[in-house]
Amino acid sequence: MRFPLLLTLQASWLTVCQATQHYPTTWGHYDLCKSEGYTDEGPTWYYMACQPEAADMTKYLKVFLDPPNITCGDPPETYCTLENPYMCNNECDSATEELAHPPELMFDHEGRNPTTFWQSTSWKKYPKPLAVNITLSWNKTIELTDDIVITFESGRPEQMVLEKSLDYGRSWQPYQFYATDCLDAFTMEPKSVRDITQHTLLDIICTEEYSRGYVWKNDKTVRFEIKDRFALFAGPKLHNMASLYGQLDTTKNLRDFFTITDLRIRLLRPATGATMVDEYNLSRYFYAISGIKVHGRCKCNLHANSCIYDKERLTCECEHNTTGPDCGRCKKNYQARAWSAGSYLPIPKGTANICLPNSVGPVNCNCNPFGSDTDRCNGTGYCKCKEGATGAKCHECLPGYLWDNGCKSRVCDSELLRCQNGGVCVNNIRCQCPPAYTGLLCEKPRCENEPGGCGGSYSGQAYLYPPGLILLLLLSILGPVFLVEIC
Ligand SMILES: [Ca+2]
């Protein structure tokens, strides 16, 4: 999102504070898509996975009500409080600003007292159900990052379903069922988010936790618990976001679970506060909502760190040579390999999986980290190999070099490049010399470097065993074997 500078600064400071307060520094914020670096060939870009900052997404939605004329006030009507059916002096009138309750009051800033809210007509057509669909559309894929919270000013509904769409409203799936009696309303066993495990995270439950009536006057909210679900992977205080990101990276179903283009709140039965509906006071029964909180970020497939709202539409500002509303494809002339989403792994900077220009050589972004200077291609699309390494990914060695976490110079072997003076060849990359010798092939007497050279009294030669002593030592070690052989 683009905010005024001050807001951005405040938000960044808040983010820093929250980050230092709650989270270890080991997981990334993915706020940079690339950074400039230098190689022998000059400046180059290093690309990282990136995503927009999470924000209040209710600023960017369109709201639709079904039926469209379900908002109270046209014609004007009076309604009663649920607590006292004889207090019916509240008025809803859509033609008078102070008495109107239009849908936008579900998304305004609540700074005033009393609260502002949308309100439906009352249940005058009882026993026909009082059903209302509230659809929130972004016309853009959104990734949820926090709980969805709906605050009611009426009693909370006795039956309600929260649904989501991932295809701009063409098809819908339930997110959660809410009822005072789950078995009766939806023939589902009542559960709560605490019953959910890593293995059942994608299960849809019915909960009775948010449907108690007006008795619980201070408890006005209905939630869809995103953070509790995150916590199944990231721990109760979301300390281990790396684990969550790892799971999101590798499990498409899980990632899709938290991704939406639309939400639909299906209000099926208002709060009655009793088992029987009071047919003589139907003005008591209606829905009223003062706030809906939806926190999330534009889905940009880890190819953008900002998302702009222009002409009433959210669009990712794509990097990494990608394009499309979600950065979901490669730009023209950047199709040297198939498009791929960025990856959160490895933590903290992820992998950008940039789209490569058609004209440029080797098709990879995965330079071998041991054989190349960085694990990413340089500005021209090639991996830059370290000394001795070669191949498109710098994963092979030139003649004379051997692979050992990178290409090490081949020093010795059992045929031509022999270690001298009794040295032992270790993995073809070094000679392990006896104490008296040194040098790449153990070719130099160590005494050459000592005061007085090899003629001095502290000569390295003194450490050598005379031939007779070696024989004695061998005999002392091998003696028992000889004995066995003789017997
Ligand atoms: Ca409001």
TrEMBL record:
<dbReference type="GO" id="GO:0009887">
    <property type="term" value="P:animal organ morphogenesis"/>
</dbReference>
<keyword id="KW-1003">Cell membrane</keyword>
<keyword id="KW-0424">Laminin EGF-like domain</keyword>
<keyword id="KW-0812">Transmembrane</keyword>
<keyword id="KW-1015">Disulfide bond</keyword>
<dbReference type="GO" id="GO:0009888">
    <property type="term" value="P:tissue development"/>
</dbReference>
<feature type="transmembrane region" description="Helical">
    <location>
        <begin position="463"/>
        <end position="484"/>
    </location>
</feature>
<feature type="signal peptide">
    <location>
        <begin position="1"/>
        <end position="19"/>
    </location>
</feature>
<comment type="function">
    <text>Involved in controlling patterning and neuronal circuit formation at the laminar, cellular, subcellular and synaptic levels. Promotes neurite outgrowth of both axons and dendrites.</text>
</comment>
<dbReference type="GO" id="GO:0007409">
    <property type="term" value="P:axonogenesis"/>
</dbReference>
<keyword id="KW-0732">Signal</keyword>
<dbReference type="GO" id="GO:0005886">
    <property type="term" value="C:plasma membrane"/>
</dbReference>
<feature type="disulfide bond">
    <location>
        <begin position="433"/>
        <end position="442"/>
    </location>
</feature>
<keyword id="KW-0677">Repeat</keyword>
<dbReference type="Pfam" id="PF00053">
    <property type="entry name" value="EGF_laminin"/>
</dbReference>
<feature type="domain" description="Laminin N-terminal">
    <location>
        <begin position="46"/>
        <end position="297"/>
    </location>
</feature>
<dbReference type="InterPro" id="IPR008211">
    <property type="entry name" value="Laminin_N"/>
</dbReference>
<feature type="domain" description="EGF-like">
    <location>
        <begin position="408"/>
        <end position="443"/>
    </location>
</feature>
<keyword id="KW-0472">Membrane</keyword>
<keyword id="KW-1133">Transmembrane helix</keyword>
<protein>
    <recommendedName>
        <fullName>Netrin-G1</fullName>
    </recommendedName>
</protein>
<keyword id="KW-0449">Lipoprotein</keyword>
<dbReference type="InterPro" id="IPR000742">
    <property type="entry name" value="EGF"/>
</dbReference>
<keyword id="KW-0524">Neurogenesis</keyword>
<keyword id="KW-0221">Differentiation</keyword>
<dbReference type="InterPro" id="IPR013111">
    <property type="entry name" value="EGF_extracell"/>
</dbReference>
<dbReference type="Pfam" id="PF07974">
    <property type="entry name" value="EGF_2"/>
</dbReference>
<keyword id="KW-0245">EGF-like domain</keyword>
<dbReference type="InterPro" id="IPR002049">
    <property type="entry name" value="LE_dom"/>
</dbReference>
<keyword id="KW-0217">Developmental protein</keyword>
<keyword id="KW-0325">Glycoprotein</keyword>
<feature type="domain" description="Laminin EGF-like">
    <location>
        <begin position="365"/>
        <end position="409"/>
    </location>
</feature>
<feature type="disulfide bond">
    <location>
        <begin position="365"/>
        <end position="377"/>
    </location>
</feature>
<dbReference type="Pfam" id="PF00055">
    <property type="entry name" value="Laminin_N"/>
</dbReference>
<dbReference type="GO" id="GO:0098552">
    <property type="term" value="C:side of membrane"/>
</dbReference>
<dbReference type="GO" id="GO:0099560">
    <property type="term" value="P:synaptic membrane adhesion"/>
</dbReference>
<dbReference type="InterPro" id="IPR050440">
    <property type="entry name" value="Laminin/Netrin_ECM"/>
</dbReference>
<keyword id="KW-0336">GPI-anchor</keyword>
<feature type="disulfide bond">
    <location>
        <begin position="385"/>
        <end position="394"/>
    </location>
</feature>
